[in-house]
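Standup notes, protein team

Yesterday: finished cleaning the Allokutzneria multivorans set.
Today: Chitinase structure.
Blockers: none.

Input for Chitinase:
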Amino acid sequence: MRQRILASLTALAAAVALSVGVSTTSSAAPVEQSGPSAACSAPNWVAGQWYDAGAIVRYTNGGFYRAEHANPGYDPVISHWYWKPHSCDGGGTPSGFVVSEAQFNQMFPGRNPFYTYQGLTAALSAYPGFATTGGDTVKKQEAAAFLANANHETGGLVHIVEQNTANYPHYCDRNQPYGCPAGQAAYYGRGPIQLSWNFNYKAAGDALGLNLLGDPWQVQNNASVAWKTALWYWNTQSGPGTMTPHNAMINGRGFGETIRSINGSLECGGKNPAQVESRVNAYRNFTRILGVDPGANLYC
């Protein structure tokens, strides 16, 4: 393991100060729409539901809006500081992500409701090079590789936290100058790539502008934060490998090199072939869903 207002401006500001948390309120019934934007894939806006900055919604008028600032479900056509009109690109998803919501749901039919597509697309802005570098095939291969590793780490996006609780106290390295302020057993694996160890929470939090060292529970309570930590590891950490998983995919090193960067010290070189096969099978399945060849160098 590695080592998610408006009666006046005054009322608006007061409401922001009180708004915290993430709601799991379900979306309203779809609104029919014609024209180019009908191909967009975004959840319907729900009044009172928490939205992270970067979230895309479909309003009752059929238009799409992007949250410029996090908010607890303010009305997009009234709260202009929080929401801006958004247009779909040619990819069919308002975020420009190469995986549509329908494809995401096909990949993870039994996923935990915590792991929302909206949370994933809201997190993409943290690492704009992810799944946007290179040609269409490379973009889709990278997205499939990232999601295939997340699939393996979480049992199909089912587990939010590490299941072996006996490991929890082991992830505190007290040799670090900042120690473990959230407690000895607070830095267990969380999120799509199971972020663990106090030094990883510190580094990820510093990179994302979040106090994850002091409050690691954000990763299991906020879908966008959870996805951001996974993207942080994918785009910036080489782990036991020689390069980041992102670089492995855009430089043609192949899916096998991403396994090495994530858990190579425990799985690669014939150490745990069943675990590697699980990752590779998911990757092959996801590239099939996205309609691209998986490429070479699938194993590590």
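Follow-up from PR in the comments: The domain at 97-300 is CATH 1.10.530.10 (Lysozyme).
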